[in-house]
Amino acid sequence: xxxxxxxxxxxxxxxxxxxxxxxxxxxxxxxxxxxxxxxxxxxxxxxxxxxxxxxxxxxxxxxxxxxxxxxxxxxxxxxxxxxxxxxxxxxxxxxxxxxxxxxxxxxxxxxxxxxxxxxxxxxxxxxxxxxxxxxxxxxxxxxxxxxxxxxxxxxxxxxxxxxxxxxxxxxxxxxxxxxxxxxxxxxxxxxxxxxxxxxxxxxxxxxxxxxxxxxxxxxxxxxxxxxxxxxxxxxxxxxxxxxxxxxxxxxxxxxxxxxxxxxxxxxxxx
Length: 270
Prior knowledge:
Order of helices and strands: HEEEEEEEEEEEEEEEEEEEEH
Distance between the termini: 20 Å
Shape: elongated
Oligomer: single chain
Number of helices: 2
Number of strands: 20
Helix content: 10-25%
Radius of gyration: 27 Å
């Protein structure tokens, strides 16, 4: 019965974690570029009461299966699902969406010398007072395919699907930059670490970033004047919420039943 109590407790803990992930997904249903999380469970180490035995044909003895009692459940993985989100039109030329694989390359203005990068699918950008192309939410610098912050020294910028940037200079002439919007890809994008503010950082699990331009063999193209919305499916999240709630209730019932059985055992002394 003590095993049942501990198994029930492990069930409560893991279902609470799953509910936390579901709640976070729902909270970010309208967050630009957000990628939903998914929880998977796995069973804990089982206690073996007796091992399995092979049959011996010469002695007319059959085999015996092992007898094991599971010790509960644990979280196997919390995975970020990096599927494409739906586009939403903004009409702003510096708002960008990646159609396909890849992440925008961002850099903190105070950390340019160390070449420390952040990565994001949220392309809400603007040109600041210095002409730098920056993330409009936190001021992070947007980098080109060489990992260098982009400067647009003119007005009326436009960005093509392959990342080419054009603008109008002070004399009114059109100018095209040699630098292109940078896109990063990873061997395992699901291994990226969430850093908050719609950004990710490289991790040992993700592998090293490959900085390149849009519309290559490994990256998607850009859509100017649009943003990528969250890939959270509310219908699926509500179903997961119900399943998680019922799992939590069932594990609570397990604990309550095991406690009642233990109480009956204690009452035998009376």
